[in-house]
Write a structure and sequence with these properties.
The chain has 14 helices and 17 strands. The chain is an alpha/beta fold. The chain is elongated.
Length: 436
């Protein structure tokens, strides 16, 4: 049987999942590939800890160049994460003519243009299924399964940590800080959870999806981003009463003129499929002009789901090698001459519905003053609810608006927040009604 030799850089959680998958399902992989995937070398700074797999000692090295410079190794898998030295290792491996498999979404979102350009010039693959959606085959679906479609919209729950936190807050009406602590104790959240709770991780993934869906260069800076740390049980309680659930969504829309690209907490109808994606699961809702609406759902992270995605890339790349094919599918789904910059709309141009929560003194005329300012900026109110008087100096006022322009909303809220009768900053959450 033919052999394809693999070198692994980074033997952490995902690397371990990849190795366990190769060992456990060796026979089924060989029967589908028609060749053996041989893991020849593994480079990691820690080559002594027990990962629960048995490999010969001479497989391990602490020197990454033992992998990259090995002339027998066909595919280099990068699973160390971060920007450097991962970027340097990948570029060195490309220069050596190695095929690349990576799960590093942050690196691709920041340096993808450079990496894909280098790979194209060298005629080698860069496969990255595991970078977005863990075990869910999102990349291959957009690159190949939906190749006949113009992608009109993407709505994604792309970060399991944030989804776990919001799910628990919704189910148990607990404050953000308590659920975050629990998520850290359970291993769903990092000690420093910033990448997850501030929407950065989801924005990395949306950056990659934009390039695949619309044929635009990778541009992480074009993504508008907000996190979930300001959401309170009070907001969730009100939203539930009005038939909404809150999710951290990665959203893109293409109307033919420009593209929306944003990540932020979003209210969606509680009966929609996305509203019922809970715990640490991920999902991507796609609307194509031909296929219509589809939903891809599953585990978005974790040792074995992500390891499965890495192995799927290994098999795909190995098939091309065995058949003498170079870059069968364009690295970003579009032929290079058709990857062009397009306008990414500023968040100020967004037109949508909004949820507001004001904290205001409970006195006559306050609601009319707030409503008057909103009216001056062409913001009309769909519904309003003012909580009754209690022992505090201020009471919450909840509003849902009709569609309004973001720039007008920001100006109106800035003026309202300067009123002496308004205490603190107004809470704003955008609403997306168009989900089934």
């Amino acid at each position: 049987m033919k052999k394809v030799f693999v070198g692994l850089v980074g033997f952490g959680t995902v690397g371990t999942g990849m190795v366990k998958t190769l060992i456990k399902n060796r026979e089924i992989i060989e029967s589908r590939l028609g060749a053996s995937l041989i893991l020849k070398r593994i480079a990691d700074i820690d080559i002594t800890s027990d990962r629960g797999v048995h490999l010969e000692k001479d497989v391990f090295t602490t020197n990454v160049m033992d992998v990259i410079d090995d002339p027998e190794i066909d595919i280099v898998v990068e699973l160390i994460g971060g920007y450097e030295p991962a970027r340097g290792y990948i570029l060195r491996a490309i220069e050596k003519g190695k095929q690349i498999v990576t799960a590093n979404k942050a690196l691709l979102a920041a340096y993808g243009n450079e990496i894909f350009s280098a790979a194209s010039q060298k005629g080698v693959e860069v496969a990255f299924e595991a970078s977005v959606g863990g075990g869910i085959p999102l990349i291959s679906t957009i690159k190949e399964g939906l190749v006949a479609n113009r992608i009109l919209t993407l709505f994604g729950i792309m970060n399991g940590t944030s989804n776990y936190i919001l799910s628990k807050m919704t189910e148990e009406e607990r404050p953000f800080s308590d659920v975050l602590k629990e998520a850290q104790e359970l291993g769903y959240a990092e000690v420093d959870p910033t990448l997850d709770i501030e929407g950065i991780d989801a924005a990395h993934k949306l950056t990659i999806l934009l390039a695949l869906a619309y044929g635009v260069p990778i541009d992480f800076g074009a993504i508008y981003r907000e996190g979930i740390s300001k959401v309170t049980p009070l907001d969730i309680r009100f939203m539930k009463q009005f038939g909404y659930r809150i999710k951290l969504l990665a959203i893109s829309k293409d109307d033919g003129q420009a593209i929306e690209a944003r990540v932020h907490p979003t209210l969606i109808p509680e009966k929609s499929m996305l509203a019922n994606v809970n715990e640490a699961y991920n999902a991507l809702y796609i609307k194509g002009d031909i296929v219509g609406n589809i939903l891809l759902y599953g585990p978005g992270a974790g040792m074995m789901p992500t390891g499965s995605a890495v192995v799927s890339d290994l098999v795909d790349v190995a098939r091309n090698l065995l058949n003498g094919i170079k870059i069968r599918v364009p690295l970003l789904g579009y032929q290079a001459q058709h990857i062009k910059k397009r306008k990414i709309r500023s968040i100020d141009e967004l037109v949508t519905q909004y949820y507001f929560r004001f904290s205001a003194e409970d006195r006559p005329g306050v609601l009319s003053r707030i409503s008057g300012i909103l009216g001056e900026y062409d913001i009309s109110i769909d519904s309003v609810h003012q909580k009754g008087r209690d022992t505090t100096d201020a009471v919450p006022i909840f509003m849902i608006t009709h569609e309004a322009k973001e720039s007008n909303v920001r100006q109106a809220l800035a003026e309202i927040d300067r009123l002496p009768v308004v205490k603190g900053q107004t809470m704003l959450i955008r609403i997306e009604e168009g989900l089934s």
